[in-house]
Amino acid sequence: MSFSAIKVEGSALRSSMKEMVRFSCKGAVLNFWFQGEAQAFLCVVDLLVTMFILYLFIPPMQTHFVLHRASSGNHDRKSARMKMDNASPADYTGLNSECKDGLWQQLQREAFEIVWSKIENTFKAVLKNINGDAFNEIHSWVLESFQAIRSLGSISSSFEAIRPFPIAIDAASKCLHAGLVLTRNIEFVDDLMTFEDLAENLRSRGCHVANLSSLEFSYDNGTSGCIRSLLRQFLSSPVDAVDMSILSSWYFAQGNRDAPVVVILNDLERCCGHVLSDFIIMLSEWIVKIPVILIIGVATTLDVPGEMLHFNALQCLRMCKFILQSPMERMNAVVEAVLVKNCSGFSISHKVAVFLKNYFTNHDGTLSSLIRALKIACAQHFSTEPLSCMLKVFDEQESFHGEKCGFLHEVISACDRAILSSMGKMDEEGIQDMVSTLIELKKMQDRWSVVVLCLYEAAKCRQVNLLDLLCEALDPDLLSSGRIGCHKTSIKGRAMYCAIQNVRELPEVMVVNLVKSWEKHAIAIPEIHGKVKDLQYNLKFENGRRRKEDLPVIKRTNQNHLNALGGSRAFNETAANFLECLINDFMQPLECMPSHEIVCYKNVEKLKAALAGDPRRQIQVDLLGSCRILQCSCCSGDGGTLRPSMQDTSIMYILSQEHGDLINLYDWYQCFKLILQPLGKVNQKTKQNQGKKDNNEDEELSEVAIQSRGSCGCKAKGDRIICSGWHMDSDKVMTSPVTLGDFSTD
Amino acid sequence: MAREESLRATKRITRSASSAPTPEKKSGFKTKKTADLCSPSLTDLVYGDPISLDALLSTFPGRKAQILELIKLLGHLNSPTLPLFIYGVPSTGKTSIILQLFRHLNRPFVYSSFRTCYNPRSFFESVLNQLLLHHRDASNGYSSAKRCDRPSDFVDLLRDALTSLIKRLKGSVKKSMPPQLALPVDGHMIYLIFDHLELVREWGKSSSVLHFLFNLYDNLNIPEVGFIFLSNLAPDMFCSNMSYVEQIPVYFPSYSEDDIRQIFLRNQENQKLYSSFLDVVLRPLSRITRRLDELSPTFASLYMQYCKPISGPDTVLNEDMKRRLYSKLNPHITSACNETFRVLDYAAPEAETSTKFEMKACKRKLESSKKSDELDFHLSTSAKYLLISAFLASRNQATLDASLFDSSGGPDGRKRRRKVSQKVMAQQETAEDDLHTKGPGSFPLERLLAIFQCLSSVAEGSPDEDGGSDDWLGIGGEGAVVTTDILLQISSLSNVNFIVRGGSCPLEGSTRYKCMVSEDLALKVARSLKFPLAKYIYRR
């Protein structure tokens, strides 16, 4: 591909404060943003995922229902389902009865919803808890800083609070406490939630908290933007002319003046340094009246404040740094909870794991994209794998005992009725077999996950990624390649070998701790737990023996030292051997187990295509030719023309395509309106509206209705609208949510 | 007691003022209202309990001359004065001294700082609110007493407010009142203090507002109003070719070394120890800066270091001891001279349990060897390659690209190593110098992407790339295809200011970019990829 074809031009939207750079590439438009647009982009991407998932669950003949409204996934699914239930049964010819087919669909959809909600809840909880320590630290620092500010002096009356001059204090104590929170992640999308959690956390402990984003620190707005945003968050009533004295008087009016005011700024790098410096100096002048404590998120290094801020502002700051968990650590935690501990029963094959690992480390690097990929995989699994609906009850521990077992039985027979009916019914014995197979599968999986956890525990010090370990542990060639311990050279440098080697080299205390943590992991599996107990006993025994040997020797000679070293080697060797045994005995990769297809997603090609934008292409093609698919009588006929009876989203998308690379929102909207109401009608309508407004509302489409219909195809966010149309190149799909500027038509 | 009463009275009155719904109504009642308002809440216009001149002078060591000059310029009670223009570098005590001076004189004043008032409207309303003794609080919906956008409106409103206020002040002075009910304010002059005047220069319509401010004395033409401007910049930095009334400049020079010593010694418990500390640190540091706000945090942290070796409070401070303390402190002084800002680690107050500590220590030992040259933050592999290519594009000249990234996909060192003439060498030298003075060069996006493609193809070919090297770009499969994701990654790199938009090229008209990454960071990134960056950087 030659790059000469790429033409880059900058175009700043007139009234928008965001900078936008537009790349027109071979006729395709690609907009990407330098300020504040990534969030909007994510919304669009999420919308895509939602659309895609819906797309999967709808049989081929009904594709287009999907695209009606994209705001909340739950609602979508319901509406789609409703439509599907209402759909005419004439199209079904494949399976012998449509009611059974419907049952199957419903089972799958339910199973997906249940499983995905489990996964979602799990990783959300993990992400919330992962920074708990850091948050506690930040809170105690906030309290300390607050005490320091309080010790500077206090105000006694509301007069003093709003007087515009600084309370005479030393130049030295006119300082602003700032906590620099290192997110260690240049992609700030993952950290948006973190800072919201932090705000929530501090708020729950009685601080006044406001979140500022870099948008408030734009050059155009100046400091007024920041104060306005602060006031909007603290004061309930809107304020006309903003001023620091208002904030001060608000703080004084709060009965409880023992609470610090915490201002959280997400991303330092993207702020305008000039405005932020002014803001900091101003806050530092009001510090006695409003005890503000700043928390600033820094994505890269600690040099950034020095590079960005004015010298005078730096002098005001008393900075303290806090380090959040790195994206790698967070991903490890999520992978541990979702894929290794198997919170939902859904798991992925070796190839998919390798693909996800490469996708994360090489390509995108954000946790949100990993989760998105996982969601797509999950959806695909449920839509393609007939027996996957059994996952609905798979993970629950009690499902294998008593009545739940009966439930499993029920589910299987339901599936059987739905799917296998064409091949002849399964008999009672067959179902019983299946139940036992499933139970066995579950047990194997549990053991496998315990071994992986133990390995991970051992490899932690070496900074081995859990995803690497997972990829190896899922590798079906693991068994065929032979025993781990015997072929050290062949697997040298790999994560598992690393873990075992690490156990060999660890100091004694840490080995004991390690074994303790193993015991904790193994507690649910009696076989492994017993072995760990044995190991602990052995280690204790060995330790005691060595102590005895060492005891009579008072002077430590070189030889004795070597002896002691040899002793500890043996100590480590025992633990390492144990780990090897564990791998050999219990770690059977999922793909080697019978009927693993039920729980395991394997189709890496499809996932790749989904992430590369294949569904987008399909959606676009379908949108352009909605008549062809709908095959309705109202709008079929001559192909090219747009008709008001067509689907709204389809009309909007076709219009946006006709306009070429840049769409003027106003023109777009006017065209849309024209199609919905041909010209004569519009004129008529305006005349009528002047006369008798109320009577005609039913007959005519009101402006509001058109606008709301128009915005179905768009996702409005704040005062901006982003079109969910995607432009295509001839062969490659470009994901380009088109920014259309402000909705105001001035 | 009287004070409390006055407070209550003010509150009640402001509430009644807020209940007046429209501005017309307000102005109609104004004379009556100010009559009610004026006498009780005039305390708003003075600083607080007056202090004596001695206290004032002792609070500000080294500023005796300026304080006395200001007192002279302000003159006796009720004597009119020309506008004062007080200037001097930051942190020389301008604001504090003028405020404390008015506290000493107990004269009414209105203060507004352009630090807090960020645009004309907020400035106008802030002044008027103070003059009309209006408090913005929840009871009046945080609204101003008067809405005022334009300078002309402001002059009218200001004149009204000032005249009525002065009338009250004069009237109450004439009345013979018992001493306990007498006004808490001396004289009937009102002073308007405008702080941080230099910030007005950055406002959009700066010149007009500045002219307006300087002309305000003429426009109002009320002898009972005094103007005081405070600024970091000298008066000739403000456009001075206009015909304003002469302002009397008062200069606050930087503190001398002795002044700084006195200021820092003021509030110290252990004068002797601190004095010996200042002997050590004052000279080297005051050579760098004499700003108090800069020196005081540095001194605070250095003093903590200085006191560390001292065991008890009753340690004898002899020459030997001093020498010992000095030798301990000396390395810290040099580092303090070099640092512009400091970020502290937060140490949790509660002690950690011993086992936890041990674990941490072990971990630290294991990690410490790697730590120094590791990246502090997460970057995906392709983002790293992008960063390196951006760095190379900024660092190397575009003409070199062909030789660095030829068809074989790697640098060919031998080609460049032929003999070059003296003249060419000299040219290269100047080019190199240019590179350093101009900073990183700019490049169009196409060049960045082309270099990225070359680098990624080299990386693809390298044998030690671990698993999945056939598809290291994740998606896209065969060859490096510029997908949106690559461009998105460029955008996230530019979000953290690693790549910034430079000016557009005048000939092509396209946007150009610059890479703002330091060589250290680029090398770190390259090291994490095992990429031989040094080979690609062009050096003489």
Distance between the termini of chain B: 82 Å
Which sheet architecture does the biggest sheet of chain B show?
5 strands, parallel
Shape of chain A: flat
Mean pLDDT of chain A: 71
Q: Order of strands side by side in the largest beta sheet of chain A?
A: 5-6-7-4-8
Low-confidence stretches of chain B: 1-40, 350-371, 409-417, 462-482
Strand content of chain A: 5-15%
The gist of it:
The complex is a heterodimer of chains A (746) and B (540). Chain A contains 29 helices and 13 strands. In chain A, strand 11 (714-717) and strand 12 (720-723) form a beta hairpin.
Task: Quickly list its features.
heterodimer, A: 746 residues, alpha/beta, five-stranded parallel β-sheet, three-stranded antiparallel β-sheet, disordered C terminus, B: 540 residues, Rossmann fold, 7% strand, disordered N terminus, Origin of replication complex subunit 5 (chain B)
Note down, in words, how this protein is organized.
Chain B: Pfam families: AAA_16 (PF13191), ORC5_C (PF14630). Chain B: It comes from Trapa incisa. Chain B: Keywords: ATP-binding, Nucleotide-binding. Chain B: Belongs to the ORC5 family. The complex is a heterodimer of chains A (746) and B (540). Chain A has a five-stranded parallel β-sheet, sandwiched between helices. In chain A, strands 1-2-3 form a three-stranded antiparallel β-sheet, with no helix packed on it. Chain A contains 29 helices and 13 strands. Chain B is an alpha/beta fold. Chain B contains 22 helices and nine strands. In chain B, strand 3, helix 9 and strand 4 form a beta-alpha-beta unit. In chain B, helix 1 packs antiparallel against helix 3. The relative contact order of chain B is 0.07.
